[in-house]
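Polysaccharide biosynthesis domain-containing protein: structure tokens wanted.
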Amino acid sequence: MEHSDIYFNVLCSVDTRWLRLTPHDDLIYSHFRQDFPDLDISYIKEDEIKNNVNKAKWRIFCEKFRNIVEDYSFGTLLRADTKGDYSEQNTILVPRVQFYAIEIARNREGLNNEVKKRYKCASKAHMEAQSNVREIAA
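Answer:
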């Protein structure tokens, strides 16, 4: 969950169209859009990506990166809806390279830039420091 918090705060801080998640972003993105050209990445429906047909397609996609992306199959939290934050209702557990593929596409296609408009993000450390300042001032 800590990685999710950090990533969400990064989304709030930068123009995500230029954000690089891995040294292999270009390769991941090109294979992703080649294999899943019509996938609506603004809202991922878990039953659509995990049904028998698509699960098999994703498995083939992920295996392409077995020797390229470290921990390519490690479980990673993905926001289902780009308009939401990381919450129990808005997260799906996916293999790491699937997370990268979808998030790289969301970044390059401008969908994650909405996060800055919708949320005021701050790291937990910053929020705790602000809280301590308020307590001292009181």
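The CA atoms of residues 24 and 68 lie 8 Å apart. The first strand starts at residue 75 and ends at 79.

Cheers.
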